[in-house]
């Protein structure tokens, strides 16, 4: 084939590089993902839910039947694998499901916090349904979660009523038979309030006769104020008190003394 034939031969058009298909797919994924993120960010999933509306209760009943009735029974009376929920109130559902403890992942001495499975609106719907079956503690009003309480009084109340299990700094602690009091440093004010109302796991119930709503707000304010304060004595070591500090000294302090003794002995020889 000479040069004239090459010039006369028409060039092929419409062929794309293999990378063009990959780029097209990636562009589509980016556009789809961005649109999904925008829609979910602006969706009413996290909007306020009317807990008393028939629609909310009806949706909560459907969610409960599909996800909870196997263990707790369609009538909330409990089953062989789950306790009765009659009288626990909306606050208990909001706490247990909102912290990821429910649905329970495995049979253990107590429910452990996991990533939350349901959207906030769905949790509120199930809470509204359970609360509609029989009276029980309700979800606390936002006015009780403003962190405007008396932190000094709250710290005193926490030391008297809670520190023996949760540690004076709210860092948690071990209990008997594989149970434990959880760390409260990352717990939201609403869930702390609900825990006091409902007494989950081994925790006693602190109703409004034991600790008033204002005193609950004082305790929450003290915990959140304490979490914001930086440790003034060096490393906080998890705020676990003398156990962690003693372990640190035993391992590193005594280890340093032994190492220095060995070094002196080797140098003398």
Can you give keywords for this protein?
269 residues; 2 strands; translocase; mainly alpha; repeat; respiratory chain; two-stranded antiparallel ribbon; heme; Cytochrome Bc1 Complex, Chain D, domain 2; membrane
Outline the biggest β-sheet: 2 strands, antiparallel
The CATH C-level name of the domain at 142-230 is Mainly Alpha
Specify the helix fraction band.
Answer: 40-55%
Proportion of residues in extended strands: under 5%
Order of the strands making up the biggest sheet: 1-2
Cα-to-Cα separation, first versus last residue: 91 Å
What global shape is seen?
A: extended
The CATH architecture designation of the domain at 142-230 is: Orthogonal Bundle
In total, the number of strands is: 2
Order of H and E elements: HHHHHHHHEEHHH
CATH homology superfamily name of the domain at 142-230? Cytochrome c-like domain
Radius of gyration: 29 Å
Q: What is the overall number of helices?
A: 11
Determine the mean pLDDT: 81
Protein name: Cytochrome bc1 complex cytochrome c subunit
Catalytic activity: a quinol + 2 Fe(III)-[cytochrome c](out) = a quinone + 2 Fe(II)-[cytochrome c](out) + 2 H(+)(out)
Keywords: Cell membrane, Electron transport, Heme, Iron, Membrane, Metal-binding, Repeat, Respiratory chain, Translocase, Transmembrane, Transmembrane helix, Transport
Organism: Amnibacterium soli
Task: Walk me through this protein's architecture.
The chain is mostly helical and 269 residues long. Among the domains are: 49-133, Cytochrome c-like domain (Cytochrome Bc1 Complex, Chain D, domain 2, Orthogonal Bundle), CATH 1.10.760.10; 142-230, Orthogonal Bundle (Cytochrome Bc1 Complex, Chain D, domain 2). The protein is 52% helix and 1% strand. It has eleven helices and two strands; from the N terminus they run ααααααααββααα. The protein has helices at 3-8, 18-42, 54-67, 69-72, 89-98, 120-133, 151-161, 163-166, 189-198, 213-228, 242-268; strands spanning 173-174, 180-181. The protein has a two-stranded antiparallel ribbon with strand order 1-2. Strand 1 (173-174) and strand 2 form a beta hairpin. The protein starts with a helix and ends with a helix.
């Amino acid at each position: 084939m000479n040069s004239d034939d090459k010039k006369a031969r028409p060039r092929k058009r419409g062929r794309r590089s293999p990378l063009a298909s990959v780029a097209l797919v990636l562009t589509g994924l980016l556009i789809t993902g961005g649109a999904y993120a925008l829609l979910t960010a602006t969706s009413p999933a996290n909007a306020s839910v009317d807990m008393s509306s028939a629609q909310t209760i009806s949706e909560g009943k459907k969610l409960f039947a599909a996800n909870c009735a196997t263990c707790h029974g369609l009538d909330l009376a409990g089953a062989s694998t789950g306790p009765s929920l009659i009288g626990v109130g909306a606050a208990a559902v909001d706490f247990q499901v909102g912290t990821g403890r429910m649905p329970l992942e495995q049979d253990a001495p107590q429910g452990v916090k996991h990533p939350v499975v349901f959207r906030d609106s769905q949790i509120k719907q199930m809470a509204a349904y359970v609360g509609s079956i029989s009276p029980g503690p309700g979800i606390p009003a936002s006015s009780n979660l403003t962190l405007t309480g008396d932190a000094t009084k709250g710290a005193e109340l926490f030391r008297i009523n809670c520190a023996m299990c949760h540690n004076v700094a709210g860092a948690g602690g071990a209990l008997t038979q594989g149970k434990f009091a959880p760390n409260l440093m990352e717990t939201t004010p609403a869930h702390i309030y609900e825990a006091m109302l409902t007494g989950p796991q081994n925790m006693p119930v602190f109703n409004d006769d034991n600790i008033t709503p204002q005193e609950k707000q004082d305790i929450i304010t003290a915990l959140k104020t304490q979490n914001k304060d930086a440790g003034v004595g060096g490393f906080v070591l998890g705020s676990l008190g003398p156990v962690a500090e003693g372990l640190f000294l035993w391992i590193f302090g005594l280890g340093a003394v032994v190492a220095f003794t060995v070094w002196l002995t080797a140098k003398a020889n």
